[in-house]
């Protein structure tokens, strides 16, 4: 290393050295992703060039080991993906080579229907869709990086999540359409994240075409403050934002909202969590969303927000952090009851 190495360069060396050692052990060609995973000078992936250079680098080889997690720009400067970025590298390689299957080997035998740190011995999901995986991964199921699904799904390349320590286990297969004969639960899985804040802004007739919602979103855009989701009603806007992003600008943000929008009321609920319940099979069991909400009510778990996608089961539910684990267990228990009735 140089005396003042760049952060991304330093972070990439573990992957680089591990891949080169493995390549030498296997007698395969080592391919440095700095040659073929192409970023621009701002650290953004150049997809078209990456696909071309991966093909040029790998197609002539019978066997190869490529490091994950990083690439380089035209000047040779190393750039890394975010944590879990080796999954993205694998997906890009599968896409570039037109693979029949992308196997992602990890330390678990597939994707669980719930967090095993909360639910004892949760069931492994045998099949799920690309969209279900992205939702569950984004909301906390950490087996596969959510962005790794994008290129594979565009090419409709199945992803098989497998366990390196138990290679005999079939793992989870990620596909666009279920194979014939596969029986699937209406609720595929449940995952979530703590550390959320809910902002409630009220003003009479905010939906009357005055541009109130657009102005609110413009305030967030200028501050580069992302939100998890935004709900609008006749007289209100509800925003769910990560607390760690909101805390440093909360007072200034509220002051700007008051000056710009002159709302009738601004409320803030902190220490909230967000739970995703997903299941594309639920189109055949249209009361699955009702059952989820009824179960939380039965367990006396307060629901602070609800965001429901159209058609297939795609619920985002806000609950207080102190009841987060209770809610995950309740929804998983409901899922298992549905399984027994299939």
| Mean pLDDT over the full residue set | 89
CATH homologous superfamily annotation of the largest domain: Acetylglutamate kinase-like
Helix content: 25-40%
Q: What is the overall number of helices?
A: 10
- Characterize the overall form: globular
Describe the main β-sheet briefly: 6 strands, antiparallel
| Count of extended strands | 14
- Outline the low-pLDDT stretches: none
Q: Give me the strand/helix succession.
A: HEHEEEHEEHHEEEHEEHHEHEEH
Which CATH architecture of the largest domain? 3-Layer(aba) Sandwich
Distance between the termini: 58 Å
Q: What Rg do the Cα atoms give?
A: 23 Å
CATH topology (level 3) name of the largest domain? Carbamate kinase
Overall structural class, as computed from helix and strand content, comes to alpha+beta
Provide the number of structural domains: 4
**Spatial order of strands in the largest sheet:** 10-11-9-12-14-13
Please give a structural write-up.
This protein is α+β, with helices and mostly antiparallel strands and 342 residues long. The chain folds into four domains: 1-99, 3-Layer(aba) Sandwich (Carbamate kinase), CATH 3.40.1160.10; 103-178, Carbamate kinase (3-Layer(aba) Sandwich); 195-270, VC0802-like; 273-341, VC0802-like. The chain contains ten helices and 14 strands. Strands 10-11-9-12-14-13 form a six-stranded antiparallel beta sheet. Helix 2 (47-58) crosses helix 3 (86-97), helix 3 (86-97) packs parallel to helix 5 and helix 6 (212-222) runs antiparallel to helix 8 (250-261). The longest helix is centred in the N-terminal third of the chain and has 20 residues, at 7-26. The termini are far apart.
């Amino acid at each position: 290393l140089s005396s003042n190495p760049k952060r991304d360069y330093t972070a990439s060396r573990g992957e680089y050295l591990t891949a080169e050692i493995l390549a030498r052990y296997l007698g395969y060609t080592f391919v440095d992703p700095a040659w073929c995973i192409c970023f621009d000078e701002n650290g953004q992936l150049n997809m078209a060039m990456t696909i071309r250079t991966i093909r040029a680098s790998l197609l002539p080889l019978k066997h190869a080991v490529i490091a994950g997690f990083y690439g380089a720009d035209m000047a040779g400067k190393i750039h890394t993906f975010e944590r879990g970025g080796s999954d993205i590298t694998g997906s890009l390689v599968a896409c570039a080579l037109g693979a029949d299957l992308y196997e992602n080997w990890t330390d678990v035998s597939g994707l669980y229907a719930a967090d095993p740190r909360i639910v004892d011995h949760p069931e492994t999901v045998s099949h799920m869709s690309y969209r279900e995986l992205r939702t569950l991964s984004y909301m906390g199921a950490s087996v596969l990086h959510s962005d790794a699904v994008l290129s594979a799904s565009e090419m409709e390349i199945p992803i098989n999540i497998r366990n390196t320590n138990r290679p005999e286990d079939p793992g989870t297969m990620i596909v666009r359409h279920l194979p014939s004969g596969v029986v699937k639960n209406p609720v595929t899985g449940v995952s979530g994240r703590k550390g959320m804040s809910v902002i409630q802004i009220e003003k009479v007739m905010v939906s009357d075409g005055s541009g109130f919602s657009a102005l609110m979103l413009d305030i967030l855009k200028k501050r580069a403050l992302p939100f998890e989701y935004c709900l609008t009603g006749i007289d209100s806007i509800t925003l769910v934002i990560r607390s760690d992003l909101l805390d440093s600008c909360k007072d200034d943000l509220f002051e700007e909202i008051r000056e710009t929008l002159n709302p009738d009321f601004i409320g803030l609920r902190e220490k909230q969590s967000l739970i995703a319940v997903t299941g594309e099979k639920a189109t055949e069991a249209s009361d699955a969303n009702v059952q989820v909400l009824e179960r939380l009510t039965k367990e006396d778990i307060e629901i602070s927000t609800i965001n429901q996608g159209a058609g297939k089961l795609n619920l985002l539910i806000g609950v207080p952090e102190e009841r987060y684990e209770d809610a995950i267990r309740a929804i998983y228990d409901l899922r298992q009851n549905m399984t027994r009735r299939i």
